[in-house]
Amino acid sequence: MMSNAPDHETEEELSDAVPHLSKKGWTWVTVGLVALTGIATWYGVGQADQAARWATVGFSIDSATDAEVTFDVHLYTDETVECQVRAMNTSFAEVGVATVTVDPAEGESQRLTVPITTVEEATTAEVNYCDVPR
Asked: So what CATH class is 52-131?
């Protein structure tokens, strides 16, 4: 006769049911973690070595030939930095570009608003990059 009572497995039986990694498996886990740590370190050092960091705050499309972008820039150098801003259309093609010079004498952190003349109506505007001119 079959019993409808639930099976009660002991903790020992359950721990035996959990698969364990072999030495080869642990080796691959360790190699993967070391690789991910290396990639994260490489990326972090690359970001920390930049002369400036920026964040787009907003933009406005004033007309079919005029756009404006507002952004914050944080300088990590005593040198002048150039920032390139761009306006793009619905296909994300550049329809206008402007460059602005950021003087560190005006402060380490600055909020700038830059006008962009466009060849057709833009739908968005952003900072493309900021860097020390070479």
From this structure: mainly beta
